[in-house]
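Summary of Year 1 activities. Much of the first year was spent building the evaluation harness for sequence design. The harness presents a backbone, in tokenized form, and records the residue chosen at every position. We chose the following record to illustrate the format because it has been used consistently in internal testing since the harness was completed.
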């Protein structure tokens, strides 16, 4: 297993909404849109309002989600069109709002969004439960096991990987 920590946005515009949207809703044509002046109007908007509207439209489809299981620790697993997610928020639909609500209680932390990726070599194929256990272990080692999180397993590249989105702000103490 390899841990990848992507570079933080330098403009301070990290967003729980965009990250949860990316993790749980993989768009089919994500990297195939050409960057030309002709294709400018064909690309979907990435504004917070547009992303939120697409997320709501997606969630409103009855076949889009399937609850897999409730876990003893209060978290649950959800299958969103082939993307298996685990979260300890009330639901995947409200995860970004819940995280933003908790983060708004700490005015000192300028960027409460924490994101990293656990990636396995092409020849390794761990079970879903082991992947989620690895993600929880990482949060525990960082002292963030009680923080809000969303995990998502992606199989869209050669390497199986799990994105971990966590709120740096503790939901009870409101400390980063």
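For this record, the design step produced the sequence shown next.
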């Amino acid at each position: 297993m390899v841990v990848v920590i992507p570079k933080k946005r330098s403009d301070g515009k990290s967003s729980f909404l965009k990250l949860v949207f990316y993790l749980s809703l993989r768009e089919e044509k994500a990297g195939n849109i050409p960057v030309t002046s002709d294709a400018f109007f064909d690309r979907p908007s990435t504004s917070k309002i547009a992303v939120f509207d697409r997320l709501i439209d997606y969630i409103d489809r009855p076949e889009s989600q399937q609850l897999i299981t409730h876990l003893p620790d209060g978290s649950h697993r959800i299958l969103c069109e082939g993307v298996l997610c685990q979260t300890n928020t009330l639901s995947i639909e409200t995860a970004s709002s819940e995280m933003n609500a908790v983060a708004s209680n700490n005015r000192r932390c300028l960027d409460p969004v924490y994101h990293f990726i656990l990636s396995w070599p092409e020849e390794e194929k761990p079970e879903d439960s082991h992947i989620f256990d690895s993600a929880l272990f990482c949060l525990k080692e960082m002292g963030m096991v009680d923080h809000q999180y969303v995990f998502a397993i992606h199989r869209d590249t050669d390497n199986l990987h799990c994105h971990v989105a966590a709120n740096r702000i503790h939901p009870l103490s409101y400390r980063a």
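The radius of gyration is 16 Å. Quantitative recovery figures across the full test set are reported in Table 2.
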